[in-house]
Design a protein that fits this description.
The complex is a heterodimer of chains A (269) and B (335). By secondary structure, chain A is α/β, with parallel strands linked by helices. Chain A contains ten helices and twelve strands. In chain A, the strands form three sheets. Chain A has a six-stranded mixed β-sheet with strand order 8-9-10-5-11-12, with helices on both faces. A four-stranded antiparallel β-sheet of chain A has the order 4-3-6-7, with helices on one face. In chain A, a hairpin with a 2-residue loop joins β6 (71-76) and β7. In chain A, α3 (109-115) packs parallel to α6 (168-181). The longest helix of chain A has 19 residues, at 134-152. Chain A is globular and about 65 Å long. Chain B is mainly α and 335 residues long. Chain B contains 13 helices and two strands. The longest helix of chain B has 34 residues, at 3-36. Chain B starts with a helix and ends in a 14-residue tail after the last helix. Classes of the chains: A alpha/beta (269), B mainly alpha (335). Chain A binds chain B through residues 64, 66, 85-88, 90-91, 95-98, 102-107, 114-116, 118-119, 121, 125, 128-131, 135, 139, 162, 164-165, 178-179, 182, and chain B through 194, 197-198, 201-207, 209-210, 212-214, 216-225, 329, 332, 334.
Chain lengths: 269, 335
């Protein structure tokens, strides 16, 4: 757990913060995930890639508690995690975004980001409703974090806009802001670049890198665009038909024959 | 001051007071609708149930006594004690919380993700079920509700003499305003301020709004849906109790109490289903509107009894011209 490495660009990557051990997930008779193990280390950007239907999103849902695997163990911060509800996982410091965006459409951008601070609100009900004492200080502190993240992701101009009015690319960014507001130990991003044009993809890539660099946030992301992932991540897990077919640095993975076959197809004769 | 004008003002004031009572019922609807998208048809019955439970506990009535007597051939009706009003109210709140947990556990947990119309049907079922339980538990006879802080310090009834005398001295016309209505208005104001502060500033209030908006997103920021739903049904139960106390003190605790829910419908259409202040303003407009309309137009020109339909006419007009109500969320559509 104590092994630390320093990457070429000077970031420190710490010990294992989350470990998946022999995870198997079934839906009826279909095995979405077959006996997969991998780990996530503190401070790294860990990507899970694979063709459509490989089980990437299922894996993310296992980590975030939306699915409970039939077999296998999830280890988080050195202890085994019992089966949990998604909200309990969130309270433990694992924040996520969704492939199809799940925002509070009726609320403003700021209110959305503030909901990310819910797990950090600790003062009593009565003090909060009267806006007195500790509650006031806490609210101001939470608000500061939210504003800092809004600045960081360059969405100040739309702070007060109802989310329903925003275009797709900005919604994705607001969702990232809300997840970040929780100051998570692990940030899970489900296809953060899906459905974006080249410019938006570049923006989002920059934000992912900056978040990791600036806040030291551990990030696990799913993507099926190989190019983007290879540039972003420190280590990559490759999945295909629910199985793990590769795990390592982008360079190692790129030269892995199984991975090449899965992505480019293989001649059957 | 001319008699006619003074009388109009009195009608107006009485309308406001009646409106407060409508608003109290409407509030319960808004709370549940906001947080779960369920239109709770049973809200009126919940008010009835709460009021009956309060009276039953106060008078030391044995719950389900008819049933027990019929099965075991006993003849018990009362425990023989009298419970202080405050304690009885606290116990009734507990009962309403238990009811909220039961409703969530046995009904709505199994209907997560269903169409709104199915959830609505479930609440109709709940309304009949609850009415039956209330009958079985406390009996169906008309009961009088006296909420007293101490001996002789009860919820006031009847004409407020002080207002009558003061206004008579000033204008030569004594205003008739019911003491109970004044108390109801103050209570409603406190309740609304409390609820708004709760929804706006507290963690649970924010979580409530989050759940109302998007379940998946709420889960991902660490909100337990189950907890929030139970919280909301408990709050609605509490509001139902307050409404039940006020209506019960006014007209006795009887089964027609559950029909006041129907009057809350036009209130909601005016105020918007999702706005707490809207429920209040909507209630006041309906209360004042129907009293003034009856007094100025209904009785002299239409043969009276317009109070029965005025609220629904007004609601219909709103549905045509402003379907989201006065304060409802704007309907935003992206094409």
């Amino acid at each position: 757990m104590l092994d630390q490495t320093v990457t070429a660009d000077g970031r420190t990557i710490g010990g294992v913060v989350m470990e998946m051990k022999n995870i198997t997930l079934r839906f009826g008779g279909v095995e979405a995930i077959k006996n997969i193990s991998f780990d996530i280390r503190e401070g790294e950007i860990r990507a899970i890639i694979g063709p459509n239907g490989a089980g990437k999103s299922s894996m993310l849902n296992v980590i975030s508690g939306f699915y409970i695997p039939q077999e296998g163990e999830v280890w988080y911060k050195g202890s085994r995690r019992p089966p949990m509800k998604p909200y309990q996982v969130a309270q433990q410091g694992i924040a996520r975004t969704f492939q199809n965006i799940a925002l509070f459409e009726g609320m403003s951008v700021l209110d959305n980001v503030m909901t990310g601070r819910l797990t950090h609100m600790k003062t009593g009900l009565f003090a909060q409703s009267l806006w007195k004492g500790k509650a006031e200080a806490e609210e101001i502190a939470n608000r500061e974090v939210a504003e800092k993240i809004i600045d960081f992701l360059e969405i100040q101009a739309i702070r007060k806009t109802p989310v329903a009015r925003l275009p797709y690319g900005l919604k994705k960014r607001v969702e990232l802001a809300r997840a970040l507001a929780a100051e998570p130990s692990i940030l899970l991003l489900d296809e953060p670049m899906a459905g974006m044009n080249v410019e938006e993809k570049e923006d989002m890539s920059r934000f992912v890198l900056d978040v990791n660099d600036e806040f030291g946030t551990t990030i696990a992301l799913i993507e099926h665009d190989m190019g983007v992932v290879m540039d972003l991540s420190d280590r990559v897990v490759v999945m295909d038909y629910g199985k793990k077919i590769g795990d390592g640095t982008p360079d190692e993975v790129r030269n892995n024959q199984d991975v090449i076959d899965a992505y480019l197809g293989v001649a059957h004769d | 001051m001319p008699e006619q004008l003074a009388f109009t003002i009195e009608v107006f004031l009485n309308g406001l007071m009646a409106g407060v009572l409508y608003a109290l019922v409407a509030l319960g609807f808004v709370l549940i609708y906001k947080a779960s998208g369920i239109f709770n048809y049973a809200q009126g019955v919940m008010a009835l149930f709460a009021a009956m439970t309060l009276v039953g506990i106060q008078n030391g009535q044995v719950p389900f006594s008819h049933l027990i007597n019929a099965i075991f051939g006993t003849d018990i009706h009362k425990f023989g004690w009298h419970v202080h009003s405050f304690l009885a109210i606290a116990l009734t709140v507990l009962v309403m919380i238990v009811l909220a947990i039961a409703v969530q556990r046995f009904v709505f947990r199994h209907l997560v993700g269903q169409e709104p119309i199915i959830l609505f049907m479930a609440t109709i079922g709940l309304a009949f079920f609850l009415e039956g339980v209330a009958d079985l538990m406390w009996g169906s006879e008309l009961k009088t509700l006296n909420v007293c802080a101490a001996e002789g310090a009860c919820l006031p009834q009847g004409l407020n003499l002080w207002i009558d005398e003061t206004t008579f001295n000033a204008f030569g016309y004594g205003f008739f305003i019911d003491n109970l209505d004044i108390v109801a208005s103050v209570v409603a104001a406190i309740l609304v301020i409390g609820l708004v502060m709760f929804a706006q500033y507290t963690k649970q209030g924010r979580a409530m709004r989050a759940v109302a908006d998007d379940h998946q997103a709420a889960l991902s920021v660490g909100v337990s849906l189950n907890f929030i739903w139970i919280l909301v049904w408990s709050l609605a139960g509490f509001v139902a109790l307050v409404a039940g106390i006020m209506w019960g003190a006014k007209s006795g605790v009887q089964f027609s109490l559950s029909l006041i829910a129907l009057k809350a419908l036009p209130v909601l259409m005016l105020g918007g289903f999702t706005s707490i202040p809207g429920a209040i303003v909507g209630g006041l407009i309906i209360g004042v509107g129907e009293k003034l309309f009856e007094f100025l137009i209904g009785a002299p020109f239409l043969g009276g009894a317009t109070e029965n339909w005025f609220a629904y006419m007004l609601a219909l007009l709103f549905l045509v011209f402003r379907p989201q109500g006065l304060f409802g969320e704007k309907i935003i559509e992206r094409v």
